[in-house]
Queue: 2 jobs
Job 1
Amino acid sequence: MEKHNFVTIADLSKERIMYLIEMAQEFEKHPNRELLKGRVVATLFYEPSTRTRLSFETAANRLGARVIGFSDAKASSVSKGETLKDTILMVSNYADVIAMRHYIEGAAQYASEVAPVPIINAGDGAHMHPSQCLLDLYSIYKTQGTLNNLNIYLVGDLKYGRTVHSLIMAMRHFNPTFHFIAPKELAMPKEYKLYCDEHAIRYQEHTAFNEKVIQDADIIYMTRVQKERFSDLMEYERVKNVYILRRDMLRGVKDNMKILHPLPRVNEIAYDVDDDPHAYYIQQAQNGLYAREAIFCYCLGISLEDIKNDKTIIK
């Protein structure tokens, strides 16, 4: 199996998505292996991160790789004015694969064009978050038993939320019906609604968020209103607490419905929801480990067959 970049979910076929999900299933059975023993993974985080960075680094460690990189660009030569190109080329001298988060949209694509090693997009601005998308798909598949014909409700910051943008593109293969729930200031951008139209993806838009609106949901995907994306803090203050999911709103939902959230949570999910059987966002974050183990192997040319035949499993 050849090496690959993992920059956008939009390039992946339905078959490749299901292939990666099957990889993640294998890693959930046995996460500790030595498939990447002797390899070096670089994590370059130009933006703050907890779950994404730590799960990438944990995935590398559990597969036997060594990890280098930075979690704060100010602690690197970036602070001295080093360009993205030069940083990528330098780190490529030391690492077999680079997982990178950057605040500029398109940075990961650019890095993939100049790097001699595979690039994994760990989030680029408000654009894409394909590794989060894969763990979201895996979480949906695990909880629903399918990715097909689901009612998926995306709630909150749909303007800047790169996770929901990636999810729309990935779900084009599976005949979803989306419900976009957002205030006008944070509505789904026109380009993603046009994408839905072009790919015959059904969607409805709402500004109300209540028990009646969500009663047909299979998945409710909550998002944080991202303060760091706002140039006008007054606008942020107006919208930050518009939608809060509370436990009493879940009385009429479907039994199979699960609540997802890319985290971190601020106020958008009340803490009394955590103990509800519909809550799945903590398990969703755990699934990130298995999804990112799959991504590393995919990028480094390790096949599903290699994983199934692996004799390096550590009990």
Job 2
Amino acid sequence: MTDSLTHLLGIAPLSPAHITSILDLADRYVDLNRRQVKRSDALAGRTQVNMFFENSTRTLVSFEVAGKRLGADVINMAMQTSSIKKGETLVDTALTLNAMHPDLLVVRHPHSGAVELLAQKVNCAVLNAGDGRHEHPTQALLDALTIRRAKGRLDGLTVAICGDIAHSRVARSNLILLQKMGSTVRLVGPPTLVPTGLGADVFHDMETGLKDADVVMMLRLQKERMDGGFIPSEREYYHRFGLDADKMTHAKPDAIVMHPAPMNRGVEIDGELADDLTRSVIQEQVEMGVAVRMAAMDLLMQGRAAKPDGVMV
């Protein structure tokens, strides 16, 4: 890797060498996580603080498991009961935490750019666990690792990202990463949910969008971020854009099915297809998530040690 990581705020600033280094280290952590004793001392003596301003189950637990397997002291802050609710600003919270000398802050926030602002105010590494509609870098990295392990490569693949593109930081991070690594990305969904100008081919029907795809990545309908009539009904959405066995026939015979979860079965994806272990790698995505987050945090600590006053990456 040509440059050390000091923060992980998004995929956009990462080079293909950065991405490859994270995925290669994550591969080794997959092996560790499958052992009976799942323990490393890579973060021994380090303090990891998880600050989730949005509700989360999978991502928060994944980061907690990752930190503990690396030997870190892990603290989960209950932001819903923190001084933020009393009117304290994000910057004041950051300065308070900074005075306690943590080594790593893992932050999820509903506003785009909030995590980068926090990173400018603290002396420790900051890892973006999702900010607004901006980015979700570790989700894209775990998706890339899942694809690479299933297909043996990332370059030369055709990946169809389908569904609620407009509200999805997962889609944005995956689009950036996959294109950096040589994949062709298609965006598939209704016109109301697929914005223009993202630099990828757009399709408004599943038949042509999935034609000869190597990977079909479904997205959750983010109804909590919608303030208007983006779809006529969930039933109609499933009929036209929900993934089922019939629509999968347009993809390659060995195409894999992905979903970042949580899934709305019968809305975005057929339940039987989601559980079909010959096509679906959704459970592998969960497993890869822990390994990727271990790798990212390990490399961040290495980067901070190499460049304690380093610039943001």
